[in-house]
């Protein structure tokens, strides 16, 4: 059974990007949408931190509707803040900076694999998701259609875990950074972070959902202000592009197909009609996250996560004020101009 939407409201599909601790921005966005209460949800596609947010939203809604979802999201991210290593350090002046121990660990991953650094495959995130989410209930009674993306480590193929496939392993596979964690083995197959194949996958919302409104919550910047020159900066930018390339390709393809469908006129098939009727919306975090380093994705201190949550709430409220009335009627995102510029 999926979420029911009252006749006076509209249903949104959600596409939630990954980005480690930056996913707390999406926490804030979802919290504001839930507080506003005008929209229900049908399908949610998520990768990495986006997948965590998707499952928290579904789990909480299953237990207590919108308020239950807000509580579950808060519990998860507060749990993330508590699950990090406790270090004896001076008071943090800049909460966006990883603690010394985390910096040291990130440096070590350049020369040693997680199989060497963490042979026992200890993962505090596993303890957190197993404690907080009831995967058995979600498999049978999720209120939303969930699409959790992971990447098959030996082929690069996208693996979508849907409602019947939900498990702690499936969720951890979506967030498995291969430099930090062992590959997640599911039914004998190894999986890495879903961002290599889709960040997030948008086509399932187009293909498997009835709602024609898709809201993308984007954490990666669409544009970078400067070209990197230092070795570390170049490596960081290359990693950022690797995590967004699949999403950008998918969006460019959808934009091109939509443009072709619009040019074909009304005498066309069901695919063209569906492309024309799909309405895209966007909440993006470039102004908040664009100036942060990749290392800040590993920062799990409470002050930083709350700062991002509050920024997400502010952005979502602004979007609601400017575009909420468009849902169900028209797109608030120009797909061609954003992803297929001339």
TrEMBL record:
A motif (DGA/G) lies at residues 193-195. The active site is at 48 (nucleophile), 193 (proton acceptor). Keywords: Hydrolase, Lipid degradation, Lipid metabolism. Gene3D superfamilies: Cytosolic phospholipase A2 catalytic domain. A motif (GXGXXG) lies at residues 18-23. A motif (GXSXG) lies at residues 46-50. InterPro entries: Acyl_Trfase/lysoPLipase, NTE, PNPLA_dom. Pfam families: Patatin (PF01734). Residues 14-206 form the PNPLA domain. This is Patatin-like phospholipase family protein.
